[in-house]
Amino acid sequence: MTSVVSVVERLPVVVGVDGTPADLQVVDTAAEEAAFRGVPLHVVHAWPGRLVSWSRHRAAADQPDGRHLLELAIRRVQLAYPSLVVGTQLVDEGAAEALVRWSARAGLLVVRHRDEAGLGHGWGSTAAYVAHHSVCPLLVHRGAVPSRGPVAVAVSGRHTASLRSAFEAAARAGCGVTAVHVREAGGDTGDRLDTALAEWADQWPDVPVDRLVIDEDEVAYTIDRASRRCRLLIAGRGRKGWSVEAVYNSGGVAGGRQLCPVLLVPPGWPVGGRVPAEASRPAGY
């Protein structure tokens, strides 16, 4: 009988591209993740197609452009990672819906921010929608990844996949972990927090750990500071999506400064990084 673990651990890294020059950077990020994990990379591009009913000529012109973009992405990835298996998909549907559908069959979904409305949070409607609905962990690329600083992770004191992800990322980058905990009114989760941190610290003894306990009114400031000073910001999405709102409504791209990537882990994502057996490879992959 085929092992479920052996199947699900081969789920690909999926990256969404929309046809702009900045997409090359996000493809690079996704390729690095896929190569590190030893899994295939799949590049997904949504083109207007039938959604642009007012201009058949424009829709027909977009499809070849989309195919050309995917060909460029494949060549770029294969130059950097010759042995990496790369697949592509040109889909005739909305980008947000397509990416959420693919997230049910991926181990990691990668998108870039796009401040298309000038809102200041640097995400854009597609990334914001996917952040709330992605089935797998979502990595939001927000510019050049800083080469210094720790990995910051929001922790609750529970045994979660986001905390494991933080230690794995820090060990890979050769840096420390800053565990940020929001103090609960009238409660003390210090012992639980210490236990959760100690468990992963035992597995990664070379990763330094700093603990930062803040009040609720300090969340926005802390996220903004972490976005500018850390290599990676990790948070569990939560069942109500409040952490997503906190991340993309805090900070932004003020002054044109680059912000670190954000990794959002959905509720219920297994601590070992494994997904349910029904999450299978997309048709045509």
From TrEMBL:
Lineage: Bacteria, Bacillati, Actinomycetota, Actinomycetes, Micromonosporales
SUPFAM superfamilies for this protein: Adenine nucleotide alpha hydrolases-like (SSF52402)
Organism: Actinoplanes lobatus
Matching InterPro entries: Rossmann-like_a/b/a_fold, UspA
Protein name per the record: Nucleotide-binding universal stress UspA family protein
Matching Pfam families: Usp
Domain UspA stretches: 13-140
